[in-house]
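Our consortium's second objective concerns turning raw sequence data into structural hypotheses that experimental partners can test. To show how far this objective has progressed, the report includes one record in full. It was chosen at random from the queue rather than selected for favorable results. The single chain below, 291 residues long, was entered without modification.
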Amino acid sequence: MSDYELAIGDRAYSSWSLRGWLLFHAFGLPVTTRQGRLYTDDFPRLMAEFAPARTAPALRLPEGPVISESLAIAEELATRHPEAGHWPRDPRARAIARALAAEMHAGFGALRSHCPMNLRVSYQDCAPPQEVLADLARLSEIWAWARRESGSSTPWLCGDYSVADAFFAPVAARIAGYNLPVSPEAQSYVAAHLAHPSFRMWRAMGLCDGADQPFYARPWETRPWPGPTPLSAEPVPSGPSVNAACPYSGRAVTDFARIGAGVYGFCNPFCRDKTVADPEAWPKFMAIFQG
């Protein structure tokens, strides 16, 4: 169990929670998550345990105090774990990354409002108003500026994946989910997010960690999710399975799924369903599948 404890909301919908979790997982830091379902009494009950924070993500430090706001969490983790690489080592790239993260933290209100993050669906057209189009133009502008000024030769904005990229992951999800118009260069950046291992894990969990939230439903025509196409997979009622122990917990299998040509076992429905959602997102499962 990790010394850090992170309060999050629904993975499919809570963009701020996604940022907070990426600050750990994408940088190789362990964290224990506590989830509260949005728009239910469950969420305020959880947040009461993380006072004085009022919103997710909220982080309980090993010494006990709780800090909230993803930018504060990012800075605290970068200070405590300089080896993790939250910020670029190069001073020029680091300054650019910090400027980007700060603008994302405080801006793009029209985009947030018209296109709340929903990792469970992608719409054909959301009729973005002019204010949203202006936000998208600004994103394309600062993303191109960051890559040019930092000299990045990777898919990311300032060289290696950094806090700036973690902060823009929910924006990439919005562009994908609402089929928003951006420049070809910006679209390539979105595609890099959709394929990022940590993002794929989070989305796979978000597809099966609770019922759809009615607040996020929109009356628009849908299309397939534009990220990597997952392997064919479906739950099945029984085994036998290729494996006797769950790839994640090591416990005896009780729930089963057909993935590719084989049947595989898991220790509970969530382990099964997150794997069915995107088998290739899970290295521990793929080690069995490919072996």
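The partners drew two points from this record. The mean pLDDT is 97. The first helix runs from residue 15 to 25. Both points have been shared with the crystallography group to help prioritize constructs.
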